[in-house]
């Protein structure tokens, strides 16, 4: 499925302006499907990163210290965040709608939402079991959905790769993180095995980075 003008952003004036933009045209980019076992996230990520690299905009996908940002950062991150929003299914919008034009956080949030189901599914179904909430009064559908989640997870547990306390610990850590902390773990979250120690180390490093940034900003005041 290729995207010209996604239904959730259908607005003739805005889309005409976007389509006339020589940078970040969405034609030919696959639509990112919702998270799940059949997600096309890896394909979408490959195409998007490659395309943005071809127009020298891929650099805004990575967290960058303010002092290292070029003068074009604000304009480029606004362009790319809009581009990403126009290349995803509307069911993905909820993962990024609070992030504005913070492209590194948007990229990480989509990565986090899709990573586990594209990397084998174990953490994805663990997280579904731990985070799915019942909505409305239809408790039967909720019970059935939770049973399905459990069955999907069980199918991925083998003697060679059993479910461990470390798996549950790592999943709990990831579930506990706010969206703006996702970039610090996004680089290795598609690995087959991500230990709690690796996640904790990345979080500690990010905490130090943020502390240094605050001190630097205070010194400039």
Protein model, in words:
Helix 4 packs across helix 5 and helix 5 (122-131) crosses helix 7. The chain has one domain. It is globular. The model is unreliable at 1-22 (pLDDT under 50). By secondary structure, the chain is an all-alpha fold. It starts with 11 loop residues before the first helix and ends with a helix. The protein has 8 helices and no strands.
For this entry, give a set of tags.
single chain; 221 residues; mainly alpha; globular; disordered N terminus
> Structural class of the helix and strand makeup?
mainly alpha
Helix fraction by DSSP (H/I, runs of at least 4): 40-55%
> Given the structure, what is the number of helices?
8
Stretches where pLDDT is under 50 for at least 5 consecutive residues are 1-22
**Taking all residues together, what is the mean pLDDT?**
80
Task: Please sum up the structure shown.
The protein has one domain (7-220). Helices cover 52% and strands 0% of the residues.
Secondary-structure blueprint of this entry?
Layout: H1 12-19, H2 41-54, H3 73-85, H4 103-118, H5 122-131, H6 139-155, H7 165-176, H8 196-220
